[in-house]
Design a protein that fits this description.
By secondary structure, this protein is α/β, with parallel strands linked by helices. It has one domain: Type I PLP-dependent aspartate aminotransferase-like (Major domain) (Aspartate Aminotransferase, domain 2). Helix content is 30%, strand content 17%. The protein is built from seven helices and eight strands, in the order H-E-E-E-E-H-E-H-E-H-E-E-H-H-H. Strand 6, helix 4 and strand 7 form a beta-alpha-beta unit. It starts with a helix and ends in a 10-residue tail after the last helix. The C terminus is likely disordered. It binds pyridoxal-5'-phosphate. The site of pyridoxal-5'-phosphate (PLP) has 10 residues, from loops.
Length: 227
Amino acid sequence: MTALRVARAVTGRSRIALFAGLYHGTFDGVLAGSIRDSNGSLHTVPRTSGVPAKMLDDVLVLPFGEQESLDILAQEAGELAAVLVEPAPWWNTNVDLREFLHRIRSITSASGSALVFDEVVVGFRMHPGGAQAEYDVRADLVTYGKAVGAGMPIGVIAGSSNYMDAMDGGNWNFGDASSPQADTTCLPGRSSSIRWSWPPPMRCCNISAERPTFAGAIDRPHCGHGC
Ligand SMILES: Cc1ncc(COP(=O)(O)O)c(C=O)c1O
């Protein structure tokens, strides 16, 4: 949710695209699916009861891995704040993920939309550098959770400075006249940076960096979701 808010704040656009069947958490604004009308056009619908359709007015839901989706993205990209994707879906797929992600990357780079990787589940299982390293694709924003917290309820957003600056105003130094200059958006949950919550995730990162083969030894990520 915060990564999308940041993408919207920085790009000044509202619309986002995501892919049917992938899961991005409990926020109503991403619990979206799509249906086709008799003309074959896609329409975004709530993925489950209780999600107001209005929450999804600015959400485009596309089939994962399809050429049709890349074509629609290319048409719509100028209006998109972000394309949100789990870089590896939880189901078995014949999609060439590297190729698909690179295609999305080139569309979003050309349009100035943020490419947001949701690595909350994928984490660092396939590579210590995550899916970005595995597929050699640089996202603008990446979200991590679950494993990165090593048991603590922690979420991490990483990314390029033009997006990250929207969270803290950008670089500045102690002891001189510099100050954060970038426009910032609301970033709640700062209490999760309290001291006791960070040692387990930091240790987890160290293990991952010390033993790169550990990540490589684990098979393709696989998990199921309840909706
Ligand atoms: C891929 C993925 N993204 C994001 C989330 C975050 O979900 P929540 O909104 O429950 O924190 C989850 C939780 O299962 C997830 O699997």
